[in-house]
Amino acid sequence: MNIFKCIRKCDLFVSAVFLSTLLLLSACSSRNIESYSVNLPKLDVKEFFSGELLASGIVKNSSGEVIRYFTAKLTGEWQGNRGTLKEVFYFNDDKIEYRTWQLEIKPNNEFTGTANDVIGVATGQQNGNAIFMTYTLQIPFSDDTLNLNVDDRMFLVSPDTLISESYLSKFGFDVGEVVLTIRKI
Known about the structure:
CATH topology of the largest domain: Lipocalin
Radius of gyration: 20 Å
Largest sheet: 10 strands, antiparallel, barrel
Number of strands: 10
Strand content: over 45%
Strand order of the largest sheet: 1-2-3-4-5-6-7-8-9-10
CATH superfamily of the largest domain: Calycin beta-barrel core domain
Distance between the termini: 75 Å
Low-confidence stretches: 1-29
Number of domains: 2
Shape: globular
CATH architecture of the largest domain: Beta Barrel
């Protein structure tokens, strides 16, 4: 009977060490928007996403293979702290997708957004030259739709050019990535 208690204690110890290591690794690898606070040029959601913009990008699968590419036209308008960002995506397979964001600037460099294909409310922060935003996106899949978690990381690299990386996941597993460049016209 003592051997079973020992095995059980060892299993608990191994599990605790594994979970502690996993938490430590995830804490070390997490990206924090405050680390970009001194980076220039300063990115302001209202300023950058005003007027006409053009985007070009690629969609990668979980293996990193480019499976789609696109161009997009964006138009942003603001009234106070509320804005509308209309997006039209033109994909290489001749499909066209539309998204209209309703954005609201909040205190402490935070903002929220809703869109026709976003489930619930997107939340975001801006700091230095960066914007981080998370949301759940509903995408067409076969004859149905699929909900993907999106982790957007946007960086202003010049006053008129932004580079964005969007990490796509489902049930905690990476399923793809979108990389795009947005330029003010």
